[in-house]
């Protein structure tokens, strides 16, 4: 799970003006208090510069989320979101992302202990990464959002 969270957790900094994030009602750069208000529950206070909060039992529309992780920087605000879903919900989530954002870039990695499939969309505002990881005794599916640092039209 640690590797998936590393991929999914949002590690890049956002510079410039805030932009509308993929999840309705959230904007990149929102403060901890604004994110807490949007989520409907307070996020724990933390004195460190970058704060990562996780919560269980969340719904994304009507789809249950096993674990939601939010990363907020004290000076830069909201920097990322990650959602872990049940593997049974993977097809619905991927088809929704494809319907909204088109065909993704895809890749896969295989080694002796695990297989990973990765799908990536760059919407211009957001970089969306979906990861399915299969190990001998576990399957995980995670999507993460972070602000895009490169608009596709600049290439």
List the defining traits of the structure above.
disordered N terminus; 9 strands; 155 residues; 7-stranded antiparallel sheet; two-stranded antiparallel ribbon; single chain
Describe what this molecule looks like in 3D.
- This protein has 155 residues and is an alpha+beta fold.
- It is built from three helices and nine strands.
- It has a seven-stranded antiparallel beta sheet, sandwiched between helices. A two-stranded antiparallel ribbon has the order 2-3.
Task: List strands and helices in order, with pairings.
Layout: H1 2-8, H2 32-39, E1 50-55, E2 58-60, E3 63-65, E4 67-73, E5 77-85, H3 90-101, E6 105-110, E7 114-122, E8 126-135, E9 138-147
Antiparallel strand pairs: 1-4, 2-3, 4-5, 5-9, 6-7, 7-8, 8-9
Concise overview:
It is built from three helices and nine strands.
Rounded to the nearest angstrom, the distance between the terminal CA atoms is 34 Å
Major sheet: size, sense and barrel closure? 7 strands, antiparallel
Average pLDDT reading: 81
Task: Report the radius of gyration as a whole number of Å.
Answer: 15 Å
Strand arrangement, major sheet = 1-4-5-9-8-7-6
Number of separate helices: 3
Number of strands: 9
Q: In percent, how helical is the residue content?
A: 10-25%
- Gross morphology is globular
* % residues in beta strands: 35-45%
Order of helices and strands: HHEEEEEHEEEE
Helix vs. strand class: alpha+beta
């Amino acid at each position: 799970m640690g590797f998936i969270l590393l991929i999914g957790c949002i590690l890049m900094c956002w510079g410039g003006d805030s932009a509308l994030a993929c999840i309705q009602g959230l904007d990149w750069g929102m403060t901890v208090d604004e994110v807490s208000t949007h989520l409907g529950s307070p996020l724990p206070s933390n004195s460190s510069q970058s704060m990562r909060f996780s919560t269980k039992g969340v719904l994304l529309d009507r789809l249950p989320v096993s674990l939601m992780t939010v990363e907020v920087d004290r000076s830069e605000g909201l920097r990322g979101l990650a959602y872990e879903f049940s593997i049974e919900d993977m097809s619905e989530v991927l088809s929704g992302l494809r319907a909204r954002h088109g065909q993704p870039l895809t890749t896969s990695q295989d080694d002796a202990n695990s297989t990973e499939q990765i799908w990536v969309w760059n919407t211009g505002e957001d970089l969306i990464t979906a990861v399915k990881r299969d190990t001998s005794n576990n399957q995980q599916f995670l999507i993460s959002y972070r602000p895009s640092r490169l608009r596709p039209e600049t290439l």
